Amino acid sequence: MFTGNEEQKKKYLGRLMEEPLMCAYCVTEPGAGSNVNGVQLKAERKGDEYVLNGQKMWITNGGVANWYFVLARTHPDPKAKASEAFTAFIVDRDTPGLEPGRKEWNMGQRASDNRGITFQDVVVPKENVLTGEGAGFKIAMLAFDKTRPPTAAQAVGLAQRALDEATKYSLERKTMGKPIAQHQAVAFMLAEMAMGIEASRVLTYRSALETDLGERNTYLASIAKEMASVVANKAATDAVQIFGGNGYNSEYPVEKLMRDAKVYQIYEGTSQIQRIIIARELINMMKSGSY
Prior knowledge:
The chain has 291 residues and is of the alpha+beta class. The protein contains seven helices and nine strands. The chain is globular. The two termini are 30 Å apart.
């Protein structure tokens, strides 16, 4: 919505301020995730309206959203460049033909309302186009620059919880007559967790600062998101290890952290996609002399 006009912002962001409502970001499809250029949901223009047909998948807040950001293919040529092929729409939840699927039962983050969304002859007025026809891909990419720092912050928070739980447990659990925290093997695991968390936190803050300053933060946003997701997964895994058999049991908190952590390496662009972006941005900056 940061690309929306004043009327769109007033109508759709305004209602989120007036009531405890949610929205959802509909880009991913059954056959298109990190490869946004693979989006197949089609929007056909008919006069002053567009008709949307297709399916989205793994949509967070899919069943509770009041309105959706939807990326759809509008260019008739399937080989059209991504920068011209897609258009971004605002779609109200109560629009006829829009149908959320069942809530998915995922490995982790089960409190998240995650669903598929079906669009069958969903009519959207041209007033709900963001920026203009063909601008959708650029908007989606800019959105990722803004959403990756908060995703990194979530991962840092999870990693911190894992460290807190592991440290507390290691001071209570005793083997060979002393707390396991006093065994070098465990102490070094705790130290590595702390190092990764502090580094990830600084990266997250820096990537968020660039956003606040209005600067392009693609490079640091991807670094922060990737670093934090790797650290979160390692911290959660090491926490389970420190808890030993108890860590594998659902009555202790760390097995849930391990399940919840994995998706940070998948959504908002997989770890592999982040590395592609980081390498591309680094090379371009070096070539341009801005590094």
